[in-house]
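Progress note, project year one: complex with nicotinamide-adenine-dinucleotide.
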Amino acid sequence: MKKKDISSRRDFLKIAAIGTAALGLGSVSNVFASSSDPAIKESIPSFGFENEEPTGNQSVMGLACEPLDKVRIAIIGIGMRGSEAVERLLQIEGVQLTVLCDLVPDFVKKANQKIQEAGHPAAAIYTGIDDWMKICEREDVDLVYNCTPWDLHTPIAVYAMKHGKHAAIEVPAAISIEECWQLVNTSEETRRHCMMLENCCYDFFELATLNMARQGVFGEILHAEGAYIHDLREWKFLELKDGGYYNHWRLEFSKKHNGNLYPTHGLGPIAQIMGINRGDRFDYLTSMSTKQAGISLYAAQKFGPDSPEAHQTYLLGDMNTTLIRTVNGRTLKIQHDTTSPRPYDRIHLISGTKGMARKYPQQAIALEPSSERFMKPEELDALLQKYEHPLARQIGEKARLVGGHGGMDYIMDYRLIYCLRKGLPLDQDVYDAAAWSSIVYLSEKSVTDKSNSVRVPDFTRGAWVSAAPWPVVEIE
Ligand SMILES: NC(=O)c1ccc[n+]([C@@H]2O[C@H](COP(=O)([O-])OP(=O)(O)OC[C@H]3O[C@@H](n4cnc5c(N)ncnc54)[C@H](O)[C@@H]3O)[C@@H](O)[C@H]2O)c1
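Model obtained:
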């Protein structure tokens, strides 16, 4: 798609809508609609299964691209997450931050200062709402690193890949099935990487349990649980100037949607461990939400019972529970709760024929022949040391120093840059991005249909059957 064809982001979305309509997928405009919108209900039969048919494009399972001596990165969205990414990426060899973009000029300015303080040349800066298009069209960018709000993830990634760039997208990568297919189809057409930045896959306990799983410690894994339980009530109402989200984007989703809006932190690590899209795949899911209570209660307490915030309708049920069954007869339970007064929790539970592990509220493992009790602290320490993942051993110390959720963010970025520079396949591919993100839309489908089960499309179009699970990777 050439620049002169598109004068604004709105035009691009229009063109994308025409493209998907031609594929029988309905309009992308329902991405931004609420679940009570009749447009969504009308599109219920179209889950994108027609896309499972071969397109003639080659699969990107195991895609390796030309090695890059230096990875020239454009960061779009320099709010809370993007500004942290700038700091982390500056500490990785072979990275050049060539472009920065945010609607808030001050965020861009501060990030550019950090780049120069680190001894790098200043980045080109952009602050316009559609400037991400100009950035994707630039010659001096290899990777578009996208930390914008959810509704911009897929449009920017698709446009970036169409202009020859690799795309790294914050979580979730997509918020509709149409968007999931757009990512898959564009990555396959353009042979560009599209990685969702699921950092929780690189946390230390998650990596250790992956290593244990690959070595058969848990036997056959039949069930796993993950979650995003994080009390964000205060954050959702904060103003931007006080460190809140841009335009209260997260609160806006809580007003209009009811399902698991943020599944991938809990789901990514267990999906990798279970070899989802590589030997097994999601088959169908059923999802149920509690009623909404906590946001209204919080709003009434904070702004007064007669305030617009307290009178506002919020569709998002406080707790959403989604159960997924795989084709090979295994189950995953994923929860989402950003409202209840509870400690942070991603659960990370793995249950197999020889034992189990659980991360929260504190790390615990039980294995045969003593599986009736959790290991004593010294036994657990010895086991975790024995199965420490090579990435944790090799760059864990530096990662803990750099930080970013205790170091996992740095390990993720490091691996991304390492693989791009070596021309290796990435740890998470577009099929992971699509399958894990599809839960956002499909959970809402099930919730709005009295928890009836909903099929999950096979985004790999059959490649999952022969693909090998993500191995225990190392760096040199
Ligand atoms: N992986 C994680 O641990 C993690 C943690 C927090 C947030 N996130 C994800 O990161 C993303 C950003 O979250 P956040 O907390 O930083 O939100 P934020 O609101 O702080 O930042 C988003 C930024 O995007 C900018 N933006 C909006 N529209 C833009 C446009 N058209 N062009 C350029 N910039 C634009 C805003 O000005 C804002 O600064 C979200 O997708 C979120 O889910 C991931």
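The domain at 200-396+413-465 is CATH 3.30.360.10 (Dihydrodipicolinate Reductase; domain 2).
The pocket of nicotinamide-adenine-dinucleotide is lined by residues 76-82, 101-104, 107, 129, 132, 147-150, 152, 170-171, 197, 199, 245-246, 249, 405 (CB under 6 Å).
No further modelling is planned for this target in the current period.
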